[in-house]
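Why should sequence recovery work at all? Because a backbone constrains its sequence more than one might expect. Tight turns favour small or flexible residues, buried strands favour hydrophobic ones, and helices have their own preferences. The token representation captures these environments compactly. In the example below, the structure is given first.
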């Protein structure tokens, strides 16, 4: 038996009724975005998602990622979208995108940087997204949350960005600001930099001497 849904579609009453309020509340915490897995947990199977997408209530951004049509635009919402699409439980925003989110430098990322476990190396980058991989799981102290998005914490962010070639002046600025704000320990930063190689260690030492 079928009955109209609260969004004007139909659903099988033998299954979980779609929770429109719950989906909107979830999307509101994610700049208007939600994944198909999140929607499914709230009673929206692929048929119902397709129904609402066809009628313009939801906008299908890419496979498995949707946005509420009438939700207002949100600063850096492309970062939220990329993070959700990559898998919010394992992926984190990183590198220049993480520097930008915590305002540690003047860098303007030309793409959203996402860090995922090496086991997910099959995750291909899409336009506007750069996917990095790591062989070691991030420890809890390497991750923070800002505006609902998981990202690498300042020291890890600085070292990752330095290792992958972010402009030296931006790394130096980021280090100076992070130290001034009390976000990183100079000794631990030096130790972490040495693991990344001579070039990164030299850049970090230069920044700390200038600070």
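From this structural description, the recovered sequence reads:
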């Amino acid at each position: 038996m079928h009955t109209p849904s609260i969004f004007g579609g139909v659903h099988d009453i033998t299954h979980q009724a779609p929770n429109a309020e719950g989906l909107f509340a979830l999307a509101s915490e994610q700049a208007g975005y939600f994944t198909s897995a999140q929607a499914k947990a709230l009673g929206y199977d692929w048929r119902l998602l397709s129904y609402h997408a066809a009628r313009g209530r939801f906008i299908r951004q890419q496979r498995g990622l949707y946005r509420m049509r009438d939700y207002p635009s949100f600063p850096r919402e492309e970062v939220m979208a990329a993070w959700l699409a990559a898998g919010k439980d394992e992926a984190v925003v990183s590198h220049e995108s993480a520097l930008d989110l915590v305002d540690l430098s003047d860098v303007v990322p030309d793409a959203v940087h996402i860090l995922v476990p090496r086991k997910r190396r099959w995750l291909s980058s899409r336009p506007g997204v750069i996917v990095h991989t790591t062989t070691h799981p991030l420890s809890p102290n390497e991750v923070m949350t800002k505006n609902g998005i998981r990202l690498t914490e300042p020291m890890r962010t600085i070292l990752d960005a330095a290792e992958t070639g972010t402009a030296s002046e931006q790394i130096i600025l980021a280090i100076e600001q992070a130290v001034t704000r009390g976000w990183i320990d100079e000794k631990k930063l030096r130790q972490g930099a040495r693991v990344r190689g001579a070039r990164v260690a030299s850049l970090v030492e230069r920044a700390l001497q200038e600070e």
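A few observations help interpret the result. Strands lie at 2-4, 10-12, 33-35, 58-62, 65-68, 92-93, 112-117, 129-134, 143-146, 149-152.
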